[in-house]
Amino acid sequence: MEEKIESLNYLKKREITRLKKLGIETIEDCFYYFPNKYEDFSKISKISEAEIGIPLTIQGKIESIKNLFLRGGKILTEIEISDSSSRIKAVFYNQPFLKNVFKKGEFFSFSGKIVQKKGYFYLQHPVFEKIPKIPHFNLLHTGKIIPIYPETKGITTKWIREKISLVLKNEIWRAREFLPEKILKKLNLVPLKEAILKIHFPETKEDIKISRFRFAFEELFLLEIEVLREKLKVKKKRAYPLKIQVEAIKEFIKSLPFELTESQKKETWRMLKEMEKSVPMNRLLQGDVGSGKTLVATILALNCAKNNYQSAMIAPTEILAAQHYRKIFRMLEPFEKRIGILTKGYSEFAGKKLKKEEMIKKIKEGGVKILIGTHSLFEEKIEFQKLALLIFDEQHKFGVEQRRKLLEKQKILPHFLSMTATPIPRTLALTIFGDLDISLLKELPCGKREIEIKVVLPKEEKMVLEFIKEKIEEGEQVFFVCPRIEFSQKGRLFSEVKTVKEQHSLLKKFFPEFKIGILYGKMSTKEKEIVMRQFEEKFLDILVATNVIEEGIDLPQVNVLVIQNAEMFGLAQLYQLIGRIGRSGKKAFCFLISHLPTKKSAQRIEALLSSNNAFELAEKDLEIRGPGDLLGEKQTGKLDLKVAKLTDLGLIELARENAKEILKEDPNLRKYLKLRENLVRKRKIYFV
Ligand code: ADP
Ligand code: MG
Q1: Is 113 helix (H, G, I), strand (E, B) or coil?
Q2: pLDDT category, 491, cuts 50, 70, 90?
Q3: Angle at 170 (CA atoms; ends 166, 172), nearest 5 degrees
Q4: Which element (helix H / strand E) includes 593?
Q5: Whose C-alpha lies nearest to ligand 1, atom 25?
Q6: Taking 50 as the threshold, does the pLDDT of residue 361 lie above it?
Q7: Centroid of chain to Cα 280
Q8: Closest residue (by CA) to atom 15 of ligand 1?
Q9: Which of 137, 360, 393, 596 is the most buried (most CB within 10 A)?
Q10: Strand ranges for 12-139 from DSSP E
């Protein structure tokens, strides 16, 4: 099956080049170049009995062929067809060459729909093919269920259908089943050879259903084996076992001005227990904004430091790293001072500024026990003495691939914890995040927030501004968020989208009496820091920002949020943004200014309004926008599923169960060599 198509001597050079344009390199690629839909032309009618408006096939003799030149330069080709019952015309626009394709007296098969116009009935733009003289002829494009292939680069579905049919006829014997026999039996799956034939050239609708089911299962099954093997691989490595420092932890918790929530207690304890072992923890901690994830991380880091090992917490931005550092240092100071921050622009240790070089040295020598930083820690290849715990904050987009690379380098892995406020739908938790165990912080310590969410049209903006004014006069602060600037293909800004800068100057004009700050990605770290501090300390009334603030800035005192061009955000993003506000116990307000009331954006915003369930919302987002928003483009490649749907939880679970069973029985797939070979080839997995 892996043979290159060049080896097929019945394909012309030119044809091979065209197939390659479609991404078909091997015979297997050809087998797996699936139709994206079908047309059912299996109803073969006599002309006199043909129904109007439904897909059907008419077979008959060519009686006449005419090219008519219409006003406006159009050319109409009329073909008259007869069978034993009657006559009908087939018409084509602007394909005058067809005149030479048909010959009077020949027999053709036409598939399409009959339309009625001004009392005339005719077949409009039907698909057609000559009926061969041989008695047991085989039609390809008409008279049955016809596969429709995605057309790209000027290659027609008809051409693709012909080539695929040809390759299938000659090469299908090469298809080797690789799914384990017992899975095929148990799930009653169509064997590979049959499934390939049925998905391309089904005889019945049932054929389409069962062949697609097999391939959907196959895709997910391979994906699950990959993910589960990744999980096993981590479990086979070693980590530093961390004793639970009960006293230190108790003291610390006692010093807090509040009680831990039930989830915080349960999940912290679970993780402490897990890290007692020398098997690396590999976990995703999910919880809404404000559910107290940082606190959980702080306890784990304290425990690690008291074991005399190091931990690192990676924040998505320098601003956030600084916020985390200040907060964690303030909380832990009485118990553990060996805390530092190291970002591109800044370093500090135990509350005092420290030169970068000295900081790097201190980390290497083990003097820093808890280090807070950003990704630059990896880029600059900072060395640790004994890194036992690695925590990622709000970076679920950091992919499996990158996690793997990071972890493979070391002999002893740090325990790994990834924290996110973005609800990860179960379907993704089982696939792209399937190598991680999952913890959930269910409740918010401050109780349910009361937030009034309103979708407004641009013409109602004035009203929003009036409202803001009132609120600021009452002493409130306002977040004003604009989407990150994106350019259209021609390099122009989408005309309806306001940039932060435009929004900033508009607001300044409208509110000369208020202090208005601006924050966006391209500003220097120093500038960002200053603006954030000014806002935190209430020197600013309004902060206009891009969704840089999406990534976890914690400003619980803010109760008013306006989102400009809300239609440009994913639901998960909107949810995150809304999570920033209303944590002071007061009622909060959020305005979503939507410029394009398209069906999709309205649907999303409606879902947002109607659902209080973050997970439900995430599922919907996945359904409407695909996984790009949730995962970032980098990771979606892995999920490049042709047949399976990422929203099909049932099938994902089924694939996972079966993958688990097979791996449990035979982790290196020694009994399933064909499956193993397939995984190596298709998913680049290596076995020992
Ligand atoms: P997250 O990272 O999950 O968004 P944080 O850990 O930053 O949330 O916590 C948000 C705020 O709630 C912080 O000010 C934190 O000190 C506070 N907090 C955390 N846990 C509790 C709790 N159990 N009770 C009350 N307040 C808490
Ligand atoms: Mg956080």
Answers
A1: strand
A2: very low
A3: 105
A4: strand 588-593
A5: 445
A6: yes
A7: 27
A8: 292
A9: 393
A10: 37-40, 44-45, 56-69, 75-82, 87-93, 107-117, 120-130
Q: Which atom number of ligand 1 is nearest to the Cα of residue 552?
A: 4
Q: Identify the residue whose C-alpha is closest to ligand 1 atom 23.
A: 260
Task: Name which of 185-189, 347-351, 356-360, 399-403 the model is least confident about.
Answer: 399-403
> How big is the chain by its Cα radius of gyration, in Å?
32
- State the pairing for strand pair 588-593/560-563: parallel
Query: Which tens digits make up the pLDDT trace of 496-543?
Result: 677 888 889 999 999 999 999 998 878 887 888 888 889 888 999 999
* Element containing residue 192 per DSSP (H, E): helix 192-200
Nearest ligand 1 atom to the CA of 287 is 3
470, with CB counted inside 10 A (0-12, 13-18, 19+), is exposed
DSSP state of 609: H
Any residues with CB less than 8 A from the CB of 438 and at least 6 apart, and which? 283, 284, 286, 424, 429
Count of residues making up the chain: 688
Q: Are 121 and 81 in contact (CB under 8 A)?
A: no
CA–CA separation, 411 and 263 (whole Å):
33
For residue 5, the 8-state DSSP code is G
Q: Which atom of ligand 1 is nearest to the CA of 297?
A: 6
| Residue type for position 41 | F
The two three-digit tokens of residue 154, written as one number? 């000027």
Which mutation among 252, 294, 320 tests ligand 1's pocket best, with the greatest number of atoms within 8 A of CB? Answer: 294
* Substitution candidate for ligand 1 out of 253, 254, 291, 295 with most atoms within 8 A of CB: 295
Place of tokens 């912080």: 441
**Distance from the CA of 627 to the center of ligand 1, in angstroms?**
29
User: What type of residue sits at position 629?
Assistant: D
Atom 26, ligand 1: residue with shortest CA distance: 445
Q: What mean pLDDT is reported for the chain?
A: 86
Report how far apart the first and last C-alpha atoms of the chain are (Å, whole number): 24
The pLDDT score that the predictor gives to residue 207 is 94
Return the structure tokens found at 57. 């096939």
Domains and CATH numbers, the chain: 43-143 (2.40.50.140), 451-610 (3.40.50.300)
3-state secondary structure 214-272: HHHHHHHHHHHHHHHHHHHHHHHCECCCCCCCHHHHHHHHHHCCCCCCHHHHHHHHHHH
Contacts of 483 (CB under 8 A, 6+ apart): 497, 546, 547, 564, 565, 568, 569
What pTM was estimated for this model as a whole? 0.76
Nearest Cα neighbor of 443 from 253, 283, 290, 610 is 290
Centre a 10 Å sphere on the Cβ of residue 593 and count the other Cβ atoms it contains.
22
CA dist 62 and 80 (Å) reads: 6
- pLDDT at position 408 is 67
Residues in contact with ligand 1 by the CB-under-6-Å rule are 258-261, 264, 287, 289-295, 421, 445, 554
Rounded CA gap, 250 and 247, in Å?
A: 5
| Tokens found for residue 261 | 């929530």
Kindly state the tokens that stand for 130: 């000559």
